[in-house]
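Chain entry —
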Amino acid sequence: NIFKGADLSERKLPILVERSKEPGPAIWLSAGMHGDEVTGIEVIQRIFNYLKRRPLKRGTLYALPLVNPMGFEMIKRENPYDDEDINRNFPGDANGGTTERLTNAIFNSIVETKPDLVIDLHADTQNSLPYIIIDRPVGAKAGVKETLEKSWELAEKFGVTVTYDIEVEGYKKYRLDQGMTAALINHNQILAFVVELGGPRVIDEKFARMGVRGVKNILLH
C-alpha cells in the first residue's frame, strides 16, 4: 500500500518475488522510478517470464517493476502528486510528503531483506550508449568505500560500460546523493548500481535485450 485517495481508493506498488528452494543471494531489481522510462519495466517482465521456464537454482529475486505508477499513467518523469523526482528523495520519511512516504516504504522494504545487490533500471536518451553508474561516497561512514568497490566489481559482470557518477560537489548539488542506490550504499552499505538503457517513452528492443542479458549475467555470476 502507498496511500489512500480522497475517494478512499488505494494505490499500491506491485512487488514480484521468485524464490528458490535452496538458500543463496538475495537480489532486487527496480524500474519505472521515472514514469516515462519504460524499458526497465519490460526487462523485469522478461526476466520473471524466463524464470517460469528456468527457475532459480538458489537464492531469491525481488523486483519493483513499476516504482512510479502514477507518473507512468501520465507519461511523466516525476510523481504527479507533488511533482517531486522520486529518485531524489531517498531514504524518505514516513511522516513526510507523498514522495517521501513512498521512498521510505520502498527503502525499508528493500533493506529488511538484507539484499546482496540492488539494480535500478533507468533510461537516458534514445542515442545514448547503455551504461552503468556507480555512486559516490558521502561522509566518512565505515564500509562505504568498500561497498562502492564491490558494486563496481559486480557491475562489470552486467556487460556494459561502467562509470562513476559526477564529482561529489555536483553530486550533492543535484541531490544525486538522495537517489535510491546512493542511499542504499551510503546509509546501509548495500551493493547497488544504476543501469541506463536507451531513452524514455519507448521500449527499444535492442536495449531491452541488453538489459535482460545483463541481469542474466548477474544472476549466473
Q: What stands out?
A: The beta strands are 3-4, 10-11, 16-19, 26-30, 60-64, 117-122, 131-134, 161-164, 192-196. The first strand starts at residue 3 and ends at 4.
